[in-house]
UniProtKB/TrEMBL annotation:
Highest taxon above the source species: Bacteria
Keyword Protein biosynthesis attributed: no
Record GO biological process: chromosome segregation; DNA integration; DNA recombination
Claim: DNA damage is one of the keywords in the record: no
Annotated source species: Poseidonibacter ostreae
InterPro entries linked: CB, DNA_brk_join_enz, Integrase-like_cat_sf, Integrase_catalytic, Integrase_recombinase_N, Integrase_SAM-like_N, Tyrosine_recombinase_XerCD
Annotated keywords: Chromosome partition, DNA integration, DNA recombination, DNA-binding
One GO MF term attached to the UniProt entry: DNA binding
Domain Core-binding (CB): 11-103
Gene3D superfamilies in UniProt: 1.10.150.130, Intergrase catalytic core
Name this polypeptide is given: Tyrosine-type recombinase/integrase
Domain Tyr recombinase: 154-325
Length: 329
């Protein structure tokens, strides 16, 4: 390792990390949760490996965790939009629970509460950054254009002459359209779409009911109007495709690849930079704008607390101005 001073601590952390992740699997935590914890613990091990100061279970301090957050921010993957305060708090939560696990399972007596009790990053008031209606329209136009180009593709004597090329191009166009529309019109979480099968779409009361595994590894229902994705579903069924999030090589189309695809579509559609979650925000804002029922939005997003949902109840500046003009004539 790069810094031999922390070799013992590094080895112990690696051992406990392996056992902790194993315990999460036994507790039937979701794949996304396990992956998230594993990523944080791996990053923490890498941090220890290069850290100059000596760290041990006995001398672990708050400033060591702060230094880890700085290290994590400086080494954030290129596909992240930004290193948010909420991400920092998530890493703190991961480490706090990990070290609580260590304290419970060590033969020695450790008290890590002094390290984490007052450690929390202040998060600015959240603003729901959804797309404007004209941006949604631009995205839909872009998706339809891609499908039309794929359907109208003419074989030539070039490399595109491969008889499977047109079908592959069609699959990518219809898949991308289906993914974005599911996010946009159902409010589904990013990770819940991974591995979803079109046979999971059950028609009930003129709506698709989609059963997903949500947070806490709990089954949940998501609703979607069939007319919004009719042509995409028809293409999948007519061509024997079932898994929505897969590549043309039949491999998993993961969250990073989905993000890159959405970023590319946004760019072509001349839409400001956003994320997968931007589409969920857009769904929530659309539902609230029509219903003015924050309770319905909470249920559709499956939030535990309505306090999380209230960010969507804030009117835009233009709506506020229009309502003022109505009130004060």
């Amino acid at each position: 390792m790069k810094n031999s001073k922390n070799k013992i601590f590094y080895t112990e952390i690696a051992k406990y990390s392996k056992n902790y992740v194993k315990s999460l699997k036994v507790k039937k935590k979701s794949h996304n949760t396990i992956s998230s914890y594993s990523g944080t613990l791996k990053a923490f091990s890498n941090f220890i490996e290069q850290y100059e100061d000596v760290i041990s279970f006995g001398n672990l301090k708050e400033n060591h965790i702060i230094d880890f957050l700085i290290y994590k921010e400086e080494n954030v993957p290129v596909h992240y939009f930004e290193f948010k305060e909420s991400s920092k708090n998530l890493f703190i939560t991961h480490l706090k629970r990990f070290f609580t696990y260590i304290a419970k399972n060590s033969n020695k007596s450790y008290d890590f509460s002094r390290v984490f009790d007052d450690l929390k990053i202040r998060i600015p008031e959240r603003i729901a950054k959804g797309l404007e209606s004209f941006e949604v329209e631009n995205v839909l136009i872009c998706l339809n254009s891609s499908i039309e180009k794929a359907n109208n593709h003419v074989q030539s004597n070039s490399r595109t002459a491969n008889k499977d090329f047109k079908k592959s191009r069609q699959f990518v166009a219809y898949r991308n359209s289906l993914i974005i529309k599911i996010y946009l019109y159902s409010g589904i979480r990013a990770s819940e779409l991974i591995g979803l099968n079109i046979n999971d779409f059950v028609l009930e009361d003129d709506l698709y009911t989609i059963y997903v595994i949500g947070k806490g590894n709990k089954e949940a229902k998501v609703f979607l109007r069939p007319s919004r994705i009719e042509k995409e579903i028809e293409f999948f069924k007519n061509n024997g495709y079932e898994i929505i999030t897969k590549t043309i090589n039949n491999k998993v189309f993961d969250r990073v690849q989905i993000w890159k695809m959405i970023k590319k579509v946004f760019s072509v559609a001349k839409v400001k930079t956003g994320s997968i979650h931007t589409l969920r925000h857009t769904f929530a804002k659309t539902v609230y704008a029509v219903t003015k029922d924050i309770g319905t939005v909470k249920e559709m997003l499956r939030h535990k607390s309505i306090n999380t949902t209230t960010i969507y109840a804030k009117e835009s500046e233009q709506t506020t101005k229009n309502n003022y003009k109505k009130a004060i004539s």
